Amino acid sequence: MSKLLFLTQRIPYPPTKGEKIRQLQILRHLRQSHEVYLGCLVDDPRDLEHVPTVQAMCADSYFAAIDRRRASIACLRGLLTGEPLSVTFYRHRGLAGWVRRTLRDVRPEIIFVSSSNMAPYVLDQRGRERVCLVDLADVDSEKWRAYAQSGGFPMNRVHAREWRRVAALEARIARDCDWSTLVSADEAELFAGQHPAEAARIRAVSNGVDHAYFDPALPYARPFPDGGLHFVFTGTMDYPPNVDAVVWFAETILPMIRRSRPDAAFHIAGSNPAPRVQALTAIQGVFVTGRVPDMRPYIANASAAVAPMRIARGVQNKVLEAMAMARPTVVTSDALSGIRAAPGREVLLADTAEDFAAACLVAAGPEGEAIGDAARRRVLQDHTWPECLRGFDALLDRAPLAEPVHAGSA
To answer: SS3 of 130, please?
Structure first.
């Protein structure tokens, strides 16, 4: 087996966040054919109990615990160094030392970096590795650009600076690394358009979903009261795009639904609800659960899942999970990016509040079950993890792919 250095900004377990889900599945896939040396950060003390689970998957590993509050303050040194604050937030002296020793003593043939934030750990230290691949997943600079354009003073200035600094880092990654991968053809095409000279080394490797885990045939206890309509949103609830989505749904869309169905309720299930999210419980019919041990009962018993994303990058795992659970799912165009699903047949698509409310009522009606069943079939056909992650194998073996990214390869 070839030796592979795997760097990721968060411990890839438990799979409770979109990025951790992707990282865990990639780790499981790569360890089948590589000897993995994993370096990561742990920014949630509750995740420390999972260190032994991840250690068992690796030849060697380093887990750098950071305190998010202290890291948020320490990362401000990036204002002096000119670096992105998101890079300095994830900088850890102990992890940097472990990376140097691993590169020197182990001499891995392959470096696999998950997220642009972690690339600086290796960009200035590369040796004679056969392949260096950075899995950007999303074009993060575009996320910061969106925040800068939609936010108010003074944070819009901070976000604009982060946009420029992250874009510069992404340009260096595209130039200096062998491969840059992204989670969808749309993201890859965007990145290739920004870096046309490097387009031949930019690829899309899509997300999948664990269809055996998200199985609608399994028994799930009902977390909702009997009767009424129950719409559910799942995700990490201090993530700004998720916050924006649930605020829009609760304040604008749900009241439209309740005009014809006063028994409609909205359940927001996910960890770390931000103050804006917690405040939504003042609205009749809105419930915020906080962190739950298992999302599946909420999805399985919902009238429909909703993903009213107005700021989104890459593939929305919440949509794939709901589809795998055979639940009718209502999405915006941004939430459907990178997912092969036919609007009107496998999901319901709506981009205005009025259309979204109407689509929710359709999803909760007789047509919903057929849409959910079709969604499950689509997941089994196009979005299983083994099928999706094979895209990495050719890149790590340096085998050329037949289709360039600008032709829409995925």
So the answer is: coil
Q: Is residue 363 classed exposed, middle or buried when 0-12, 13-18 and 19+ CB atoms within 10 A define those classes?
A: buried
Q: Pull the structure tokens for residue 138.
A: 């999303």
Tell me how far apart the alpha carbons of residues 307 and 245 are, in angstroms, rounded to a whole number.
Answer: 7
Sheet holding 2-8, edge to edge: 60-65, 34-42, 2-8, 110-114, 131-137, 179-182, 202-204
In a 13 Å sphere around the CA of 369, the CA atoms on its Cβ side amount to 1
Separation between Cα atoms, residue 31 and residue 55, nearest integer Å: 12
Helix (H) or strand (E) holding 286: strand 286-290
Percentage of the residues of the chain whose pLDDT score is greater than 70? 97
Backbone angles phi, psi at 152, to 5 degrees: -105, 170
Predicted TM-score of the model (pTM): 0.87
Handedness of CA 138, 99, 76, 83 (dihedral sign): negative
In this prediction, residue 16 carries a pLDDT of: 83
pLDDT at 408: 35
What are the counts of helices (DSSP H) followed by strands (DSSP E) for the chain?
A: 19, 13
Mean pLDDT of 288-293: 95
